[in-house]
Amino acid sequence: MNTQTLTLEQIKEKCPTAFTAQKSPNTTTDRYTHIPTSVVIEDLMKLGWEPTSAKQVKARKNVGYQKHLITFSNPDIMIKGNEGDDVQPTVLLTNSHDGKNAFNFQVGLIRFICENGLVVSDEDYAKVQIRHVGYTFEELQTKINDVIAKLPNLVEKINTFKSTELTNDQVTEFAEKASQLRFSDSKSETYVDLNGLLVIERKEDEGNNLWSVFNRVQEKLINGTFNYGRKNRKARSIKNFNQDIKINKELWELANDYVLA
Asked: Under 8 Å CB-to-CB from 243, ≥6 apart: which residues?
């Protein structure tokens, strides 16, 4: 995951849909108010949130109005960890210009030692929405301040993950349940090399605490560095951001189950 700040021009290159000046003539009604995502991007920048990633879904129809994702981080907000295992909260903004989506804000994390992008489940951080109708900078500021105010709870949850020790059987069980999130659309259970999911890549991920196991599995599940299926094929990395967010949120929810167990 890129953690370098993007300029507006760079965002426009990667995600031109965010700058669409008019609403879609095909899928919106007269009541729909068009607010380009670029307006919200600039407003978030005024609040100290820097854009670090921009993507849009591939579309054959309604091109220029499709769903897109902009990720932001604030250089002044950091969760410090032991031995440099720092985590930076992120804000994930999704929108479309076809009248089907409001501005949606979700909370994510960048873990710096591996630059993995994590997404927190709605259970811990409910998704924030702002409708296009009546959008104001003041409302955005209030919503973002609410997100910041809840960050201590996120720090507490990460510390809980770190202090939760799993048995060897639980580690294997976690990896198995997590692997099936990647293949949830399959009609039958897909074989996955669980040992490959659990390989330790760095010393910060050693041990059986929930945070380490969660990060080992998450990194490989998203990046595709594991084998699966009867022919033992190597999985590909996930490119579709909708799938990326979905799996990340479900994986966080799965980790929560082991805290509550």
From this structure: none
